[in-house]
Amino acid sequence: MDIHRCRFIQYPASAINAIAFSHSSLPPVSGGKKSQQKHVQVRLAIGRANGDIEIWNPLSGTWHQELVMPGGRDRSVDGLVWVTDPDEEMADGKIIHGRSRLFSIGYTTTITEWDLEMARAKTHASGQHGDIWCLGVQPLPARETGANPATASRKLVAGTVDGNLVLYSIEDGELRFFKSLIRTPSKKTKMVSLCFQSRNVVIVGCSDSTICAYDIRNGALLRQMTLGSDFSGGSKNIIVWSVKCLPNGDIVSGDSTGQVCIWDGKTYTQAQRIQSHKQDVLCLTVSSDGSKIISGGMDRRTTLYEPIAGQAGRWSTVFHRKYHKHDVKAMASFEGKKMSVVVSGGPDASPVVFPLRAAGKEYHRTLSHLPQSTNLQSAPKARFVVTWWGNEIRIWHLPIGARELLDDAEKRQNRKLLAMIMVKGESNITSAAISEDGTLLVASTASEMKAFQLEPFAGLPSEQLKVTKLQMPTATIGQGGIKVEISPDRIWVSWVEEGSKVMLAKVTITPTGAYTISQPSKVRRLRRPVPKHILLGGLGSYDRNVTQLAFSPDSKMMAAADLAGYIDTWVLRAPGEQRNGASGERGDDADLLSGSGSSSDSSDDEEDQQQQNGESERWVVNSKAALIPKLASAPVVLSFSKASGPGFDGDYTLLAITTLKQVLLFNPLQGTLSDWSRRNTYAKLPEALRETRDLVKGVVWQGPRAWIYGVSFVFMLDLSQDLTAETTALTKSGGKNGIKRKRDESGAGGKMDKQQMLAPQHIKTAVGPDGVEWVDTEMADADGDDAKSVGASSAFEDDDEDDDETDGGELQHMRDGQQQANGDGEAAAAGGKGGVQRRARWWHTRQYRPILGIVPVGSSSKNEGGTDATTADDNGVVYPPLEVALVERPEWEMDQPARYFANGEWER
């Protein structure tokens, strides 16, 4: 594989302004409710300065970024609040977990509620008041009071820049301004932070050195606590950036002097003042049992406090760390049976996860600032690379040249920016796709679809590209998408609407050579009934949101996968062609398409609609689609193989990689696992792939080789060869689905050695390349022994020993069925013996990081006749040449504001 290592593509990461967990903690359950604990859907919401809201699934430490709801022009997210309704018990004893709703503020007068199922904003509300700077939700009444939490009303409480405390009603699923509760005498007083001490008492931190306690029932000021004046030479007033309440009612505040103060919750007097930071304390969080306080500040410190034994109400600093490269602006904590973590963020854009319950005993973990779904596409036949952010799209061209004859300076110039497209509208781009020949570009926002026809070098200078905007169908007006794909033959465009609706539109060419896009049609998804108690609670049908789309190489099959792990497949039928060959016969899965109790699509007339639209072909559900089992976790990759040769004929090969690092190959026309997947269980995957904590982001195909990459690794698996099980602690311990569960970890990093626990921290600063934007590298040939190069690992095993590890469930039934049917199938498939040239079964490297994405840009090798050079081994397995662009986006190349240094000086 020939790699262009690119850093010229910009991807400006945005600062983290707000962090919130949908549950702060999960109380232990007992009795019959224990089996339903797994249905509690815990999610982490991260709000950024560009208006993006990211939804993360902790997954016991896997940390999967499931959804990004892009912001828009002049938008920011500066506060996030989850509201979770009380649980309800059904007549049959099942528990409906409380519905979760997400609200945000952005230093405007508006509060926004977000619809995660539709992946967009649901409603907005505002009142006659100043910009909202802080937001909180009224707690449910305690059962000890005799009140019924299920019938109790709740309000959102917001503090404004002009000193108002206002209430918003969220009853009956609505969001509306209720009333203005408090108006301070001086408009110069800003309400900066708030939290609830009890159901009716709210604690507000202000910009005038005060902390106030209000009764929201009547607006009465219960007590005002003062911090005095700042140190000599400082500001006249102290800003209380954050306030939190402990379970016993005591109040914790962090302010602009760098102090954390403890206040008695009964007398409202100051009990303790701790000078733990050298600059402003910007955020606080506390453990659910009140035994730990964590603060983050402008000096990059994250500090942990614990009570002093034998001294009631007194706290001491346990340790502090500098996990971030900039200010620590926001943090939130979550505690459950298996997880106990704090997540923090700030201008350096990278979320940091560190242990709470096991603080000082486990490492922290820095999550990537890059998106899980890469903002990068390519047109290999035209050698275009497309990237987007905000409302801007850039198209680059990588010319073909004798790169081995170029010096370093010429290599860095071996690319051209052809076009920049600014998408009009208030919303940012959610997804984009370009056809393989580089003539069609489609982009989506939260509110509309955009399409452009590209004419490369049509009578224009070589550094320009003609871009023509296409008229979109009327049915797409007001409808945006979150995922866009174009078929390899450029005839079909697919996207996802409202989170779970898969849409298809046909592209035709007029006699003048212009492209036209037909009215879109919604294709059916198989009905998978969701239990009522799950559908009505938590996040509802959010798990049915489609996150992966893929077309087959011949553009006659399409696949989609959702967060729940279900895979749907469709096939392209000619006019009059029926699903099972008989006229008028729907097929055996008709009941799956028209049954009740589903959270998926309910329309039954999409095929008729496609015919009415004048289309000569139609997309129908694959008759074997229902046989593909539900995956154990959400897929992060869904892609059709382009391999040819023995073992790849007669059916498509669909690759699915999950968050749990399961690598599965399906034959979708048969609805079965491929022979390779039946023989190669999770336990046989290389340990280097299984143990990496970063998720897979994408895959690039080179015949049967799958080049899998994540933010910190590139991994090659040769799917024409069987793997060999490695005898390690991981495979010996096994576990459900053959996957070891790290039950001894809290969800952050791994455990520390005893000598490293609470050891002093040493900060290492990475220095970027001095002006080098483009570097060409040659990857070692994976066909020979040179694959064992520096920074890489490979395997040339000749053993094909079986392993007892299995994947369990429906996947295991498929494996068992194949073993009974084929008997000696594994022995017959053993390759690399009997004089056949030995090939690498897998290979990996970590020398590239952080990786924004990898995309193919064409073939780098040519025969004498100018055609692509391909090679085949003695078994007929074809390995075509592959040339890719690997785009890195290091943190040191991002523009960030000045930060505070430990010596008290500011960087300018």
TrEMBL record:
SMART domains the record matches: WD40 (SM00320)
Biological processes annotated in GO: maturation of SSU-rRNA from tricistronic rRNA transcript (SSU-rRNA, 5.8S rRNA, LSU-rRNA)
Spans of repeat WD: 274-306
Keywords: WD repeat
Biased composition (Polar residues): 858-873
SUPFAM superfamilies reported in the protein's UniProt record: Quinoprotein alcohol dehydrogenase-like
Protein name as annotated: Quinon protein alcohol dehydrogenase-like superfamily
